[in-house]
Amino acid sequence: MKLSDELPVDHRLATVYRIGAGLCGVILLVFGILGFTDQLSFFDTSGSQVAGLSTNGLLSLISVVVGLVLIAGAVIGGNVASMVNMTVGTLFLLSGFVHIFILDKGANILDFGMSNVIFSFVMGLLILTFGMYGRVTGGLPHDNPYWRRRHPEQAAREDAARRGVTAAGPPRITGGGVGQTLR
């Protein structure tokens, strides 16, 4: 099974993906807009802070763009929201790892501080969790569409058992008359 396989229409997991993408998108959008309202220079690395995080115009722009991408994923929903969440969450984690090594160097053009690195890790894990929810675990319930795609034979047997049909097929009526038997 590929992670891009579609969910059934209106599956309850789609709501989790949408809420996660929308919530995190709004947080990033607000952070970016607050950075723009402070009229920060695009490549300023003087340590200007917004909401406890150091920022500049470039980081504000990136935050707005990523926030809009997450909100767009929330609007589209389904597996698109899940894939957007997983992609953006992974990028946040990678950004945290990269920036932890360039904190006090000239390559730190986004003006990251340690609070930004921690925020990047926390936000990345949160977004990634929303994206992977119900998709990747060893204990998925058997009615989960991803479990069913990974185990089609067992899902078919369970469906047949629920309908009262055995693997040999539907019950047959043999014989005739009053003493009919089922086999």
Question: In terms of topology, how is this protein built?
Answer:
Layout: H1 12-37, E1 49-50, E2 53-54, H2 57-76, H3 78-101, H4 114-132, H5 145-150, H6 152-163, E3 173-174, E4 181-182
Antiparallel strand pairs: 1-2, 3-4
Helix pairs in contact: 1-2, 1-3, 1-4, 2-3, 3-4
Please tell me about this protein's structure.
The chain is mostly helical and 183 residues long. Helices cover 58% and strands 4% of the residues. It contains six helices and four strands. The protein has helices at residues 12-37, 57-76, 78-101, 114-132, 145-150, 152-163, and strands at 49-50, 53-54, 173-174, 181-182. The strands form two sheets. It has a two-stranded antiparallel ribbon. Strands 3-4 form a two-stranded antiparallel sheet. Strand 1 and strand 2 (53-54) form a beta hairpin. Helix 1 packs antiparallel against helix 2 and helix 1 runs antiparallel to helix 4 (114-132). The chain is elongated and about 70 Å long. The protein starts with 11 loop residues before the first helix and ends with a strand.
